[in-house]
Amino acid sequence: MRNGAKRIEQAARRRNRVAVNALSALATMLLLAAGLCGCSGAGGARDRALQVACLSNLRQIGVLIEMYRAENNGETPPSLQALSKQADTPNVFACRASGHKPGAMTDIDTWTDYVYVAEPGDNQVRAYCRPGNHKDQGTAVLFTDCTVRWCTAAEFQTLMAPPAEGAPAE
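Above: the chain's sequence. Below: its structure in token form.
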């Protein structure tokens, strides 16, 4: 009897392993199919994560700008390159959505994914991510008060548009 119980137990374990393997294979196929079909569930979450990472980079750049100003009697940095002393890593100057790898700290301005505005206009934009980095869905923007905001492509275009002639300055 004892051998019979062992065989039944082994058969049950084998069935469980087969079921788990089958479910794993099915889940893998579903994920692959979702990726091939371009289903937005996983892609939407990935895009949002890249947006958040970009906003975080710009926030860190804002902090670096303030550190530079504190060390230089309130003067703003002339370029992002001037922030290399304050930065621990070049990663903060590379947007993960662009797929570019960070370059050397000695030539940040030649490879960065962010555009720095040394003298902001009425819109108070200090820096922004190159709009094409996020599949033209929008871009992250850093303002002079160190706030960051995600702007849709249309919002960004309006924000960066020159003021109309004769329009009152804000």
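Residues 45-160 form one domain.
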